[in-house]
Specification:
This protein is of the alpha+beta class. Helix content is about 40%, strand content about 15%. Strands 1, 5, 17, 18, 21 and 22 form a six-stranded antiparallel sheet that branches. Strands 7, 8, 9, 10, 11 and 12 form a six-stranded antiparallel sheet that branches.
């Protein structure tokens, strides 16, 4: 395989390091990665086991061999770590594959692990040849084990449980060992189902109470907890039947590549398409987020504001889609039990065309057929947004004005930029427009909120930082050969010259850390938030495998090979420190629960090490002195001591930490409710994950935390005016 390599100079946009690549990438931290929990179909034979009704899955797509060979060659030649495939890496990759399939050790027996671990040396030969026999042998064994264990689960669902007994379920995956026999597995599933049933019973009781108190506002479903559990496992059965060979290859190759570093992974064609949609912030369809439910139907989870579905006013959140038809007269295809990816593919389509949906209305309105004309949907909820808040009071009696920008990611329509399309979407363009609006409204200071920003385009991180400085180095990058390149902002204009506050959290990763680190090194503003950011200091290149290099005639015109997200560089702040592992430390720390979550780079396996390089040449601006920082910190601390909200937050942080340190959960219902009444750590984690999945709300929420940030911004503005 020949790869054309071009040196990147200054601007690292669509002309990536590898010929026809898509651009340098800084995102990819595993903040949103969920463990793979598939389903199965079973037929119980009355013996405690299940008889198999699932055919073994085999690789049928001949292009998968090209994917295997080419991903290996790219990893071997260009990965930053310079690791070579050997026996240790093969064993690590196999362990990661097992972990991704069965994180809580509910399916595989120890004998399965031992058997396949003896075959790890096969990877040294089969991966370079693009063969996946071992991957499919393990996956098919997994199907068998899931059948057996789901049969156990089904038995336990109809069992009467005693929730007054004091017993605990081990929840720390690292402490859980694989079962060695059927008796151990039966006991593991008894506790698992008992816990799930207890949670559903509590949820049902709370929903019944809410329905009695406010019948009109309640969406209470009168379904027993046992039936919900049965539905859950029937849904597992359906989803297992929907796995195809490319799904298995994606899981397997990503398990191998993440042993080089946690941000290198293979994307199947479907995953690659979805990723590109998130980056260009538009798609052609109806503008709705879908999800599968336990009843086999596809449900509307979220509607994109201003999109076709939103304007039709006929589609609502929680409506269920039962059939899809193309154009005005095409056959309605039943999508019950269909793979979610396939349902999405049927609904998406070229702008201007019509799609018809048979929808089961959530409000009891029965089944309706709704025709919607597809259009280009702008995913504005994921774009930068701004709002001006008033805070405090000036000497003349007027309030201070603070412009707040919420930036969820560093996005860019790379194809639009490459084709020089007018009005293509990018972070820098959007932020610059907001700053112009802020200046028109005569704001006194600007807050850039990066708390939920997991990264994105390296080029956008550089250009966006350049909106706040005249010119100079923003980030330094080092390649596998140790060569260092300084990437500058060469635009002398500044979109905002006034006081700047950058808000970060443990979820601020990658491109966010580039911006925050540069602002801090230059002394351009103050960084406020969690003690440190995520700590991801590596750069990925996204390689479309069908368009990169010399390949076989079979794949020459293929667009179905997916992509490899490959770590090729490590980045460093202008001052020379890498953000890897350490992140960017806040100048002024505010308390938060996110700071206690195990979501940092250091919590990931195979993370690369921290190091530093010589500082780049740049002039510090000196807009934050140690004395000013000390004063800002003291004022903030004084306000927080008087704030009932921050006092409550401190108590919640303590309870959250105590609960997260526990390795077990009680199965005594009264004890569980008493513990949860103090604080619900599980709910906190769930809400944080949902915020990551669903994106920001329609408006910037002004809560006590943001109020404190506004207070810091106002104090900082007054200081700079005096100095």
């Amino acid at each position: 395989m020949q790869i054309r390599v071009s040196k990147s100079v200054g601007w690292l946009g669509a002309s990536a390091l590898f010929g026809l690549g898509l651009g340098l990438w800084t995102s990819g931290s595993s903040l949103n990665d969920a463990a793979f929990v598939p389903a199965t179909s079973i037929r119980h034979d009355g013996t405690g086991f299940a008889t198999s009704t699932v055919d073994e899955l085999k690789p049928t797509n001949s292009l998968l061999r090209i994917v295997g060979r080419d991903t290996f060659q790219l990893m071997n030649q260009y990965h930053l770590s310079k690791k070579r495939l050997d026996g240790t890496l093969a064993q690590d990759g196999l362990k990661m594959y097992f972990r991704n399939l069965d994180p809580m050790k509910l399916y595989f027996f120890q004998s399965d692990i031992d058997e396949f671990s003896q075959r790890s040396e096969e990877i040294l030969k089969t991966w370079p040849e693009g063969r996946f026999e071992l991957a499919f042998d393990i996956f098919n064994r997994y199907l068998k084990r899931v059948e057996e264990q789901v049969a156990l689960a089904t038995e336990w669902i109809d069992t009467d449980f005693d929730f007054t007994v004091d017993e605990e379920l081990l929840t720390d995956a690292d402490m859980i060992q694989h079962c060695t026999n059927v008796e151990e597995m039966r006991e593991r599933w008894r506790q698992r189902i008992k816990y799930s049933y207890m949670l559903l019973e509590i949820e049902r009781e709370e929903a019944e109470k809410a329905a009695q108190e406010n019948p009109e506002a309640s969406a209470f479903e009168d379904i027993s907890s046992r039936e919900k559990l049965h539905r859950r496992y029937r849904a597992l059965q359906r989803r297992m039947n929907q796995f195809i060979d490319e799904d298995v290859v994606e899981l397997y190759l990503s398990a191998l590549t993440t042993c080089y570093d946690p941000h290198t992974s293979y994307m199947s064609p479907t995953s690659y398409d979805d990723f590109m949609i998130t980056m260009r912030l538009n798609l052609e369809g109806i503008g709705a987020t879908l999800q599968s439910t336990d009843d086999g139907l596809t449900t509307i989870r979220r509607i994109v504001p201003g999109g076709a579905a939103d304007r039709s006013s006929e589609i609502k959140v929680d409506d269920k889609i039962v059939a899809v038809g193309q154009d005005t007269s095409g056959e309605m295809v039943d999508v019950t039990d269909m793979r979610l990816k396939d349902v999405v593919a049927m609904i998406r389509g070229k702008a201007g065309t019509v799609v018809r949906l048979n929808v089961l209305k959530k409000d009891g309105g029965g089944l309706r057929t709704i025709a919607i004309t597809r259009e280009k949907i702008e995913l504005t909820d994921s774009a930068a947004r701004g709002q001006v808040f008033e805070h405090g009071q000036k000497a003349d009696g007027t309030p201070f004005k603070v412009g707040v920008i919420d930036l969820p990611s560093f996005y860019s329509d790379m194809e639009g930029a490459r084709n020089q399309q007018d009005g293509y979407r990018s972070t820098t363009r959007d932020v610059e427009k907001l700053l112009t609006q802020f200046k028109d409204q005569e704001v006194d200071s600007v807050v850039l909120d990066l708390r939920m920003n997991g990264g994105g385009s390296l080029r956008e991180a550089i250009d966006c930082t350049g909106l706040f400085i005249e010119r100079g180095p923003i980030v330094q990058v080092k390649d596998p050969l140790g060569q260092i390149e300084v990437l500058d902002d060469n635009n002398p204009s500044m979109a905002w010259t006034g006081p700047l506050v950058v808000v970060t959290s443990k979820f601020s990763a990658s491109a966010s850390e580039i911006l925050a680190g540069a602002i801090q090194d230059y002394g351009r503003g103050i960084v406020v938030g969690d003690p440190a950011t995520h700590g991801k200091g590596t750069v990925q290149n996204l390689l479309n495998l069908a368009a990169q290099y010399d390949r076989s005639r079979e794949a020459a015109n293929s667009t179905t090979l997916g992509a490899l997200k490959l770590t090729i560089q490590q980045f460093y702040r202008p001052g020379g420190d890498s953000t890897q592992l350490r992140g960017v430390e806040a100048d002024l720390t505010l308390p938060s629960i996110t700071a206690q979550m195990d979501v940092a780079e250091g919590d990931l396996d195979y993370a690369m090490a921290f190091d530093r390089i010589p500082t780049a040449r740049f002039a510090k601006l000196g807009l934050l002195s140690p004395e000013q920082l000390q004063t800002l910190t003291e004022k903030s601390l004084s306000r927080r001591k008087e704030s009932a909200d921050f006092q409550r937050l401190e108590r919640d942080i303590q309870r959250y930490t105590e609960q997260k340190q526990k390795k077990t959960v009680t199965l005594n219902k009264a004890a569980y409710l008493a513990e949860r009444a103090e604080f619900n750590a599980e709910k906190q984690d769930e809400d944080t994950v949902n915020q990551q999945v669903d994106g920001p709300s329609k408006e910037i929420k002004r809560d006590f935390y943001l109020d404190e940030v506004l207070g810091i911004a106002t104090d900082y503005s007054q200081m700079l005016q005096k100095s």
